[in-house]
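Shift notes (night). Ran GNAT family N-acetyltransferase while the centrifuge was going.
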Amino acid sequence: MNRPSALALEQVDRVENNPREVEAFVQLFNDVPVRDLVRNLTVAVEAFEIAGRCFPLTLNDRSEAPNCYICCPSSAYVDYALDETRNFVSSPLLQKAIRLLIGLCAPLVSASGLDHQVQVNNWLYSTNPVPLLDRKTVAAIRDDLKVRFPDRAVLIRSLNELADRSTIAALKAEGFRLLAARQIYIFADRGSAMTNDMKRDRKRLRTTPFEEVGDADFTEADYARCEVLYRMLYLDKYTPLNPHYTARYISEMHRRGILRLAGLRRPGGELVAVTALSKNGRTLTQPIVGYDTGLPVSEGLYRMMMALAQDHAASHGLFFNMSAGAAAFKRLRGAVATVEYNAIYAGHLPRRQRMAVRIMEFVLAKIGIPLLRRFEL
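Came back to this:
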């Protein structure tokens, strides 16, 4: 059962963007060629300090499209959306109607010019928790970036009503448009008893023949295996449009203290499952999950990786943004659904682009959000 009223409290600053971690992240993407870290991504990364806050900032040019959706709205709203229609294969008429709607919207997305962008707080994850922003800070961000990048849209991803209510209000008040993106799941009601599914997951963790691998136990060979396991799940099973994180990315992010790793391995052998956790202030996300999809589902590898993450959140008092996908699975484990938004500022751009963004906002609010909620996309 959803409990939005219990979670949608006055926003507190759960996200801190530690300047040392921002510096380490930006340095990594300037030390190492981007394609050696994320194979399907082209991006420039720099640090952005304003109003006493520090953010990673990404720059993308329209000429780089198609690009990974974490930096390319046309990939997110057109290519990824079309790929998601595979979920409606059992209803051919609905699948055809949705594909037609996406096709009709594609010129609108192109006209918006959003692929030519500067993105604030982009850690290059699918989910980037946003620090608390008041109107003064939002105005400072907007005014600085529209002067520095007069031909680029300004974006902030990963906003939702449960975590970012007052930030969303501040963004709207300062001229940002909110484009619905997807439905995500939040696990934060730690006072509730474990569901039956959560109890079964913990029992499996206690009885599995696989060995638990701690954060300090990962080897060079393990990093290579992590890439394989992630690819099996997120690229081969789900979609190649997901970020293609490499072994180099995983090892560098881990060694630089930006990501924490956990996993399971065969006794004395190779990894069979892995997860990467990102703790930012008092918010947890899980940018990487992977497992050997060749093993029987009955092994419960995905369930155990999610249980490890939930246990880490509960034991450290963290607000756990479980991102999108696996809707029924996450609901059965105490997560609450909410719609995630992209905030767009285009007030400095040509009228054609501004109008396209406004129409996108309207269409996504009137058609997109009902579809997200109805089909748990």
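Residues 1-9 have pLDDT under 50 and may be disordered. Residues 196-336 form a domain with the Aminopeptidase fold (CATH 3.40.630.30).
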